[in-house]
Amino acid sequence: MALTLDTYRLLGRSGLRVSPLALGTATFGTEWGWGAERDQARKLFDRYTELGGNFFDTASTYTNGSSERLLGEFARTDRDKMVLATKYSTLRQSGDPNSGGTHRKSMLASVEASLRQLNTDYIDLLYVNVWDFRTPVEEILRGLDDLVRQGKTLYVAISNAPAWQVSRMQAIADLRGWSPLVALETEYSLIQRTTERDLIPMAREMGLGVVPYSPLGGGVLTGKYSRQDQNPVGSVAGETAGNRKSLNAALGWVTDRNLAIAEAVKEVASELGRTPAQVALAWTLNAPGVTAPIIGARTVAQLEDNLGALQVDLTPSQLARLDEVSAISLGNPHDVLASEHIRTITTGDMKVETLG
Ligand SMILES: NC(=O)c1ccc[n+]([C@@H]2O[C@H](COP(=O)([O-])OP(=O)(O)OC[C@H]3O[C@@H](n4cnc5c(N)ncnc54)[C@H](OP(=O)(O)O)[C@@H]3O)[C@@H](O)[C@H]2O)c1
Q1: How many angstroms separate the Cα of 164 from the Cα of each of 38, 158, 220?
Q2: Closest Cα partner for 198 from 326, 289, 128, 314?
Q3: How far away, in angstroms, is 25 Cα from ligand 1 center?
């Protein structure tokens, strides 16, 4: 069924209405070597909002602050219609151990910096960006709740954290009457499905909307990568696409397995008369539990291409082929629990439906 950017979805267990594709703004600014200059970023913002898009993703440290500054500048005229999501916890100043991390001091300093950079009185959605394995969960939750009570953020959420910690946090927030986590931002695509083991089932059970990042595997799923890009330094392709190819190679995304998945995506795209980017995005968009994947466009042409995913309907046989080529082992205990033996000893011959 065709969707549009103004077919809004509720974010997790909240009443907040967001577009089914968010606009990632890590490409706003060129400080990281592969983004868009101001004018191009403005065009991305204008086109997305013109079509009813309202959900933006940034972080206090993206492109050294340019991402938030540009987003704030563009959103200024219609601020209250926009859902601005930002994040804290990544290091802002080397040499200062408290400028990063999930603790209160880093949280407050980062939020104040975001409010200044975004030039706004409030953030709509504040994510814990990266788990630091050091801060007590009560400190994080109570700190986030204080920010909500102060009106500095309306909702709180989390990204890049172990499923068991998020689940525990949500239970504590519920029992104490603190602001619940309403979203889980997590890497999820045809090349990154390990999120299906615990994170996505946890999010569905605990009321967090899933907001996938890197749905194109940094561009690998667009079909423009080849084995040459496994080590792009000095290659022609590496030079034409800036540092993104080097980054993707460094992240280990340009593997034989991932190139085979990209090939299968290309085949499905040609059957449908669509582009590989649209097919890969449509797969993530329509995956169970997903609220809104984040688009990472650098140009307006890429944005237009990616928005075409809203109109893609994958057939059951195409979904099955994509599922097969990208399959992962769920690992323990899921593989054991899915076995015939366990099914027999838990439900016997009875037909018992699964919850959710
Ligand atoms: N929470 C987190 O920790 C976290 C982490 C990463 C990202 N994010 C968020 O998620 C957003 C998206 O992540 P991402 O940039 O990794 O997403 P992605 O969609 O996997 O990759 C985007 C990149 O692919 C290329 N591309 C995009 N559309 C294309 C098209 N139609 N055809 C050809 N190439 C295309 C562009 O790179 P080139 O043109 O340079 O090849 C673009 O920068 C970010 O902006 C950020 O807001 C969050």
Answers
A1: 40, 13, 30
A2: 289
A3: 9
Residue of 55, 71, 213, 265 best suited for mutating to test ligand 1, as the one with most atoms within 8 Å of CB: 213
Ligand 1 atom at minimal distance to the Cα of residue 306:
31
**Token pair for 353:** 């439906």
Give residue for tokens 């898009």. 53
* Closest residue CA from atom 29 of ligand 1: 302
User: Is 83 part of any domain?
Assistant: yes
Read off the pLDDT of residues 45-97 as tens digits, 9 standing for 90 and up. Answer: 999 999 999 999 999 999 999 999 999 999 999 999 999 999 999 987 888 99
**What are the start-end ranges of the E strands in the chain?**
9-10, 17-18, 22-24, 55-57, 83-88, 123-128, 153-159, 181-187, 209-213, 294-295
Q: Which domain holds residue 164?
A: 9-325
Q: Whose CA is nearest to atom 25 of ligand 1?
A: 219
Q: How many domains does the chain have?
A: 1
Span 252-294, pLDDT tens digits: 899 999 999 999 999 999 999 999 999 999 999 999 999 999 9
Asked if residue 23 has its Cβ within 6 Å of ligand 1, the reply is no
Does residue 336 belong to any structural domain of this protein?
no
CA of residue 187 to ligand 1 center, whole Å: 11
Residue closest by Cα to atom 5 of ligand 1: 213
- pLDDT per residue over 156-208, tens digit each? 999 999 999 999 999 999 999 999 999 999 999 999 999 999 999 999 999 99
Q: Are the C-beta atoms of residues 294 and 22 closer than 8 Å to each other? A: yes
